Amino acid sequence: MQTDWQISSSDEPTAARLAAALPLPVELARILVQRGITDSGTAQSFLEPALGQLPPPESLAPLEAAAARVAEAVTAGQRILVFGDYDADGVTATALLMDFLEQAGADVTAYIPDRRREGYGFQPEHVLDPAEAQGCRLIVTVDCGASSREAVAEAHRRGIDVVVTDHHLPDSAHLPAAAVVNPRQGPSDGPLAHLAGVGVAFYLAVCLRARLRRMDWWHRHPEPNLRQACDLVAIGTVADMVPLLGVNRVLTHVGLAVMREARRPGIEALMAVSGVAAGSIGSQDIAFRLAPRINAAGRLADPRLALDLLRCREPDRARQLALRLDALNQQRREMEAEIFDEAVGRLERDGDLRARRALVLADPRWHDGVVGIVAGRLAKRYHLPAVVLTLCDGRWKGSARSVDGLDICAAFRETAGHLCGFGGHPMAAGLRLDPQRLDAFTRDLEAAVGRLAPHLGAAPPLAIDAELDLDRITPAFLDALTALEPFGTANPEPLFAASGLSIREFRPMGRAHLRMTLCQADRPAARQVEAIRFNAPADNRPDTCLPRAAFRLGWNRFNGRRSPRMIIVDT
After folding, report:
1. Is residue 324 included in any domain, yes or no?
2. Which residues does 425 contact at the CB level (< 8 Å), separation at least 6?
């Protein structure tokens, strides 16, 4: 069955004015207008992100109190523990703050919990070890801590201060901490409201650097250049799928520029084993090549491997660590594929299971480090929320992924009587429940999803940004298109459509891919464009005509040359 397409409309006079003012191809001006950018000043700022556009730290009021307590620890020689999460956002945030504090001459150590043995977040036992056991007088959490009331209270009882920096929704209004820096607790439309955990850590460093400058601290230590930390910010921000607009767009844009300079041996080694050319790295390389390898450490092994890589200064050691992460990622992919195939097999064999409004699958053999990825793939395939569970310490534990139109946490709140705990955000969450509750939870989740989102299940139409004649696909057009980068959440890579195409030649690539040369059927002597389709349907191999194609655009780089290439996603 052919997928429905929905081609976006645009305010043509506004797009024409914007195209003339910038200047910019009118097709790209239409896309900016569709995304709410309608005046040339806003468009110019969007197309040319710079650190000077960053909102000041005062936009996040608790930063000053947090910086004051950390500055006190730095100048008094108190030992500081940086406590981070085990995903790419948490690891990059930990690395950033560790680097900064070491440059400031602080006595600092770091800890990231083991996913399988310790679970998520800052727990009361961490106050005893590593914090108290290592003589720490201050704990700074990064990308976690918003829901760690018991742990913060335990630290307070033992005379250890805690500064919480996080961006997750808290489950309590008050934490007995020295400071809580969480943009999610401020106005939802604030300029820093959508920072990733690493972005919050970056802003703490900005505020702390300013405070230490006022204290004349930097005459003893070289003042850190925080632009050079933006490579870490870019990785964590893209990996955590926060909106790549405003402050996140600026930080990611600058971070990608720093990564192209190959300043950090660990990231340079990671790019090398991932097949990413440093000089042309983009946000999609982070999302699909670098971040999965960083996350693989926390999913299957010790997240410290990823932290050590990001902070490594020795190229040979960095390459060894990068190869280790690459091997873990390959292992993760194999495990994920096996579990996904098994889950799909169950769904295809069981019509009743597949007909539900929410997919709940559980197996004690599945690895908890990959069930979240499997849930995401199932949700995308079936256009339904998916919950994938495995058995840990006598309880079902797992992850859920949702689809547009359903807040999965709202559904979990309606079934909270069956759960030992849950947390997350509207599109992704984690949960735990006792085995005897599984059937009742599945039943009530089905009912909750039916009430909250009764129309789920139908494949959404494919959203096309603009129609584009192949004659327009020139190197100059692609150069203009790159100004819309970095692409990601809230700023997706544009999807174009063309019709009436002729296939001049095609050849298979491997077992599932096709490489083609296309032109407009009514102008065979006009521009020809190389195209590639990954995982082409076996029953949809082309002959000579291609009535329509939905595609993204990219560069084909070979032997130092580059040429435009269409990446076909649907026909």
Report:
1. no
2. 168, 169, 409
Question: Mean per-residue pLDDT for 157-181?
Answer: 90
Does 156 fall in a domain?
yes
3-state secondary structure of 405: coil
Q: 126 near 81, Cβ under 8 Å?
A: no
Assess whether 483 and 413 both reside in one domain: no
Give the ranges where 415-568 is alpha helix by DSSP (H). 438-452, 475-482
Contact 448, 419 (CB under 8 A): no
Q: 478 by DSSP, 3-state: which? A: helix
Q: How many independent structural domains does the chain possess?
A: 3
Q: Give the domain-ending residue among 227, 249, 268.
A: 227
Answer whether 521's CB lies under 8 Å from 500's CB: yes
Residue 168 banded pLDDT, cuts 50, 70, 90: confident
Tell me: do 76 and 194 sit in the same domain. Answer: yes
Q: Go through 126-143 and write b for each residue having 16 or more CB atoms within 10 A of its CB, e for each that does not.
A: bbeebbbeeebbbbbbbb
Distance CA 537, CA 12 (A): 36
Residue 467 structural domain: 5-48+462-570
Dump pLDDT digits (tens) for 455-504. 887 788 899 999 999 999 999 999 999 999 999 999 999 999 999 999 98
Residue 44: which residues within 8 A CB-CB, separation 6 or more?
22
Phi-psi region of 246 (alpha: psi -120 to 50; beta: other; left: phi over 0): left
Q: In this structure, are residues 219 and 66 in contact, taking their beta carbons and an 8 Å threshold?
A: no
Distance (Å, rounded) from C-alpha 35 to C-alpha 40? Answer: 14
